[in-house]
Hints:
The chain has a 5-stranded parallel β-sheet with strand order 1-4-3-2-5, sandwiched between helices. It is α/β, with parallel strands linked by helices and 317 residues long. The protein is globular and about 55 Å long. α3 links the parallel β2 (44-48) and β3 (65-69). 52% of the residues lie in helices and 7% in strands.
Amino acid sequence: xxxxxxxxxxxxxxxxxxxxxxxxxxxxxxxxxxxxxxxxxxxxxxxxxxxxxxxxxxxxxxxxxxxxxxxxxxxxxxxxxxxxxxxxxxxxxxxxxxxxxxxxxxxxxxxxxxxxxxxxxxxxxxxxxxxxxxxxxxxxxxxxxxxxxxxxxxxxxxxxxxxxxxxxxxxxxxxxxxxxxxxxxxxxxxxxxxxxxxxxxxxxxxxxxxxxxxxxxxxxxxxxxxxxxxxxxxxxxxxxxxxxxxxxxxxxxxxxxxxxxxxxxxxxxxxxxxxxxxxxxxxxxxxxxxxxxxxxxxxxxxxxxxxxxxxxxxxxx
Length: 317
């Protein structure tokens, strides 16, 4: 159940629209996070809920509990729906509900109706009023996902053909990916598209929110382009489910950690250990100490002064 906590009205909350789903997926690699955190079984974990994916993946570590927190109630509604889906649906049904497999909108609604009685009232009211999101496929309908849809649908075809896009993420012999990238993919138009569409101005307005990038003082488009350039030459990029989603609109043959079949039973068996609360990370940290913290990108949102205050509070515990 989602607990309602005291909501400190910072400048961010006053200026950013928290009533929409901003992220239908967690765009962070759970495999890297789990390796880096190296969580021991039986510890309490604090996690920014966002879309719920990372919080669910953390359940595979057999923790004492995962406390999913978020100032945006709508993201908690999304996380709770995924939580109850793990608890009440078979694995194929879970994939159908989220939109990973299948296109039957009525089946998705039937699966939602199966879950509805087990949702908390606020969550149930939200999804009852937004069933069109369920019909269209939940994982495609956050603001960030629609940003990538615009990139994929309207702009990328001006740079590369559908066949060339398929070639980029097709399996290749060792070393062939770098050759393909440098000889075929890395055109002037692609570099220009990366600089503009993933620049701070467009990313802030279409993908995230300008306030979320207020404290970032680097050339964002150039930074993303450099990271993409290195990865798109790697033989590992064909396995990148984020890349498949951005360029093709589906995860392809690779799924996020929490949706892999080998993780389903462990997450389901531990699903009762996930608790959700509508508070900030600062408030959660001030209330108790955890064995591990997964705070997403909250440090992009706060000023240097706010960060120092949070760090002092954290260190004092």
